[in-house]
Amino acid sequence: MKNRHSQSGFTLLEVIVSLVILTIALTAIVTVGSNRAETLLELQHRNSALMVANNILERYTYPSQAISPSTIDGKQENGHTDWNWQLIVKPTNNEHIYRLDVRVSDDNDFDYAQAQLVGFKWH
Length: 123
Description:
Number of strands: 4
Number of helices: 1
Radius of gyration: 29 Å
Largest sheet: 4 strands, antiparallel
Low-confidence stretches: none
CATH topology: Pantoate--beta-alanine Ligase, Chain: A,domain 2
Distance between the termini: 107 Å
Strand order of the largest sheet: 1-2-3-4
CATH superfamily: GSPII I/J protein-like
Number of domains: 1
CATH class: Alpha Beta
Oligomer: single chain
Mean pLDDT: 90
Helix content: 40-55%
């Protein structure tokens, strides 16, 4: 009869499986953290564009600022980015009110703008 020695501890296979599980879990945590950082940067970028759009809308809705239906383009720096903005002034059903559409983009493509605001001005 053989005498078995009882040994305690983990087998090599158990250690390898647990290391694989740990690696998968750590990869998931790093990926989530990276995605959160990218999302935060994107939100900061869009917030900066929204601030530019708000500034333009405030500038052109000021009572002493005379405007007429037209398209006005310009540039403004904010958040270390040179933003391109476009203001489209349109008439409305009320002859005394203009609609102001502001779009802000970090390039000259306003089809995909980082920020858009709409305002109205009494004239």
